[in-house]
Amino acid sequence: MDIGMSVEDRQNFLAGLHVGVLGVDDPRGVSAPLLVPVWYDYRPGGEVIVQTGRDSAKGRLVRDAGRFSLCVQDETAPYRYVSVEGPVVAVDDPVPPADREALAHRYLDAGTAPAYLEANRHQLAEDILLRMRPQRWRTADFSAFAAEFS
Asked: Using CA atoms, how far apart are residues 63 and 43, in angstroms rounded to an integer?
């Protein structure tokens, strides 16, 4: 049974609201690849964007590697996931205000997002925006598999 997603399904799933897990190689040799949860945005056919601290380990490692991966999933049955990997095509420094606001509004409700942005304005001013072009996709949708056992 093929559990892979179509191009349209995988792009729509990635565009959905999930917390992503960003992965990047850590060549310092003291640990496995760095994996951290992140807020992200994606529009079908476009770039994955992730906002992070300019001087954070994540930001430094991604800039040095020139690429990263992102995995998102459904945490309830029937399970699905999409993982993308690709090159960083741009680093916006500083983060354009419209992108910062859009990301906050993607993850927070209309009343909380402005308060979050105001309360964190000094820390957010130290952020960069990473833009990645999806190059490799890995997907699984266990809906059909799960239906066989219902």
From this structure: 22
Question: Crossing angle for the helix pair 112-119 and 97-107, nearest 10 degrees?
Answer: 130
Looking at residue 92, its amino acid is D
**Global pTM?**
0.93
Are the C-beta atoms of residues 103 and 39 closer than 8 Å to each other? Answer: yes
* Residue whose C-alpha is closest to residue 45's, from 21, 11, 73, 13: 11
Structure-token match 């310092």, residue found: 28
C-beta atoms surrounding 14 within 10 Å: 26
Return all residues near 42 (Cβ < 8 A) that are at least 6 apart: 11, 14, 15, 48, 49
Residues 73 and 5: their CA atoms lie apart, in Å, by: 13
Q: Is the pLDDT of residue 128 over 70?
A: yes
What share of the chain has pLDDT > 90, as a percent?
87
Distance (Å, rounded) from C-alpha 43 to C-alpha 59? 22
CATH code for residues 7-147 = 2.30.110.10
